[in-house]
Amino acid sequence: MEIRNPILLIIGILIIIVIPFIFKRKKHQYDNGTKIANTKFLKENSYYQDKIKKYKKLTLILKTICIISMITSIVLLSRISKIEKVDSTEYNRDIFLCMDASSSVDELNLALVSNLKNTVKSLKGERFGISIFNTSSVVLVPLTDDYNYILDTLDNLEKSLKQVSAVDYDIDDYLTSSNYLMSGTLEGADTRGSSLIGDGLASCVFSFPNLEEERTRIIIFSTDNDLAGTPIVTLEEAATISKNKNVIVYGIGTEYMYEKNRTEFKNAVLKTNGEYYDFNSNSSQKIINSIEEQSKSLLKEDNKTYMIDLPQIPFLILLTSIIILFIIERKIIK
After folding, report:
1. Which whole number is the average pLDDT over 11-23?
2. Among 267, 202, 271, 273, which Cα is nearest to 231's?
3. Which CA distances in Å does 140 have to 130, 152, 200, 232?
4. Residue 25: is its pLDDT beyond 60?
5. Checking CA distances to 78, which of 149, 244, 298, 329 falls within 20 to 30 Å?
6. CA atoms of 229 and 2, how far apart (whole Å)
7. 128: closest CA among 152, 109, 106?
8. What is the pLDDT at residue 59?
9. 0.85 exceeded by pTM
C-alpha cells in the first residue's frame, strides 16, 4: 500500500484538527436574537426536552459525518494506491498446422487435430494458423490469436475427418464433409496431379506474414509423402526454402508410408532443424510436447510494475456520508 500525495494527507489532517478550535464558541455567547425571560417552564417541559435531546443527537451525528466526509475527501486526494506487477510474458512464435488432405492421411490428421485442440487452449500470445493442401493449398485459418476461431475450425476438421472415415455414414453428411476437406485443394488436379507435397510446404512457409521480422516460426506438417503429380517445388526445395526463411518443420508421417518416402520426408524435416515422427497412438502428442519444450527458451519477457489507485472504499464512504447528511438535514428541519 502506497500514498502518492502524503503531504496532502498530513495538511488535511491538521486542518481537521484545527477547525473545531476555530469555530468553537464561548458558553452563553449569542451572535443574534434577543434572550427571552422566564423560559424555565418551557425548558422543564418533557416535549421540549425530548426535542432538544433529539436535536443535540442529530447535530452530533451531523458533525461526525462532516468530519468523516472531510477525512475521506482528503484520503481520495492523497491517492492511496497499490503496487501491482503484471507478468506480460508471452511466446514470441507463430505456428502453422499444414495437413495433407489426401484420404490416405485422414487417420493421422484426425489424431493430430484432436490433440491440437488442447494445445490451442493453452496458448498465450502465440499466433496459430491452419493450412491444408493436395494439388493446391488452402489457408483455412490465417495466423491469428483468435483462439475461439481456431478451435471452431479444428472442431469442423475433426467432425469432417470422422465422417469421411466412418464405416456407416449418411451420404449427405459424407459429401458435406468431403467438400469441406477438398474444396480448393484439387484445383488444377486434372493437369498437375495430386499430393504435391513440396508445393504444400512451400505455400505454407509463405503464408507466414512479414518473414523478415524476428519471430519463431513453426510448421506442424502431416503427410504420407506419396507424390502423385508434378509439383512446382520439390519437397527438398521446400525444405531449403523453410531453412532459409528460418521456419522449423515438425513432420509426422503416416503409419504405412513407403520407406523411400519416409526417408525423404525425414531428411527434409531435419534439414529445417525440426524433428520427424512416425505416426502411432502417441506421436501427435510427442510432436506437441517437443514444440512446447523448445519454446520455453523462446519467451519474450516483459514484466511491468503499475501503481493502481484504490479510490473505491473512500468514495463509497464519502457517498454514504453525503446521503446521510441530506437525511439528517431533513430531520433537523422538521
Report:
1. 77
2. 202
3. 5, 11, 13, 22
4. no
5. 329
6. 70
7. 152
8. 81
9. no
- Of 145, 71, 47, 158, nearest to 106 (Cα)? 158
Q: Give the amino acid at 56.
A: K
Residue linked to cell 418551557: 42
Query: Three-class SS string for the chain?
Result: CEECCHHHHHHHHHHHHHHHHHHCCCCCCCCCCCCCCCCHHHHHCHHHHHHHHHHHHHHHHHHHHHHHHHHHHHHHHHCEEEEEEEECCEECEEEEEEEECCHHHHHHHHHHHHHHHHHHHCCCCCEEEEEEECCCEEEEEEEECCHHHHHHHHHHHHHHHHHHHCCCCCHHHHHHHHHHHHCCCCCCHHHHEECCHHHHHHHHHCCCCCCCCCCEEEEEEEECCCCEECCCCCHHHHHHHHHHCCEEEEEEECCCCCHHHHHHHHHHHHHCCCEEEECCCCHHHHHHHHHHHHHHHHEECCEEEEEEECCHHHHHHHHHHHHHHHHHHHHHHC
Number of Cβ within 10 Å of residue 119's Cβ equals: 21
Mean pLDDT of 25-46: 66
Residue linked to cell 523448445: 294
